[in-house]
Write a structure and sequence with these properties.
By secondary structure, the chain is of the alpha+beta class. It has nine helices and six strands, in the order αββαββαββαααααα.
Length: 214
Amino acid sequence: MKSKNSSNKILALIKSQGFNKIELDSVLETKYILQRSGENFRKYLFSFYNSNGEELCLRPDLTISSVLRYAQGNRFNKEKVFYTGSAFRKSYNNKNILIKQIGMEIFSSKDENKDDKEIIDTSIKVLKKTGFKKAKVEIGNFKLFELLIQKLSIPQRWKDRLIKFYWNKEYFSQLLKRLDSNSDIDPFIVAGDHKTYLKMKKEYPKKNDCWKNI
């Protein structure tokens, strides 16, 4: 009962800050989870196939569900939302199969610094007014990582890969190893492609404008 009262206080406080409650689907397509977390995360999912052969799963995290809701709804206006519910993850120690989660988001921000501060301030208010004895606010900024990657002297395609697959720890580690060893580039293939390019340029001299873009 005490836990329920604390939860109600949290939701009421968040709502008082101008956030609107949204309901999220309990089931989503597995591919969205694997794209972010990698194939290795599949073992934690409660997944199944529907009649169309699409692989679905119970939501393992409400944040992903909220982002999908916003993206798939073709929304463009700023939204301040919050959500609550259960997330489902397999556990091999029989603990935390059912995870209670409360979250809030500000989508399509016009002033990210201001809205980030509002999220942090609201989180601190929640911790202060709901009587938690031990709690902490962890702050992470993906944009700092993205700025760092953009400063590196590597091809843009590598920058895009590192940014895209940052959340997939296993594949991200593989990318770093390939980048370190330069194993992504085969000099024989490059030489062959260059030879083909010169041959096609000679055979089709009238396509000069096209060759300039290659």
